Amino acid sequence: MIERTFSISVAEYDQISELALADRELLLRAVDATKTAYAPYSAFNVGAAVRLSGGRIFTGSNQENSAYPSGICAERVAIFAASSQCPGDAIEAIAIAASTQNFELKNPVTPCGACRQVMAEYQNLSGKPIRIIMKGMSGKVWLVNGVENLLPLMFHAESLKK
Known about the structure:
Elements: E1 11-13, H1 21-33, E2 44-52, E3 57-61, H2 74-85, E4 91-100, H3 113-126, E5 131-135, E6 141-145
Parallel strand pairs: 4-5
Antiparallel strand pairs: 1-6, 2-3, 2-4, 5-6
């Protein structure tokens, strides 16, 4: 048996103002997108903003449904909107923010496993790492370069080839 250790790299900022201007603007667009969430069941509003290689930005918010599997996360709404409107444009960065009135959300919100896998798919398509910027309502901001820092053992399309 061989035991392997995988490590990830996360940059942590104390506040949004410490981010580079482009990352700060993208994160503020994600914060704004939380206002369009449809979250009557969880009261947990998530917003995402995707910046493409051409500079265009697409936003999305979580959309819940009483039949829970029918809802969709903010990250996938933004990614799929960007891909459908600008096919072939690489995703440079995605910012994710969340808010709720039910409790204080200090820690950055990270994407679910399904969203991480979707990000991995688009990163693999472009061959370039995607910057992922995450925050809660207050407190720290986390930034990772490349989906592998969120999903170290991600599934690759090559696994489907014989």
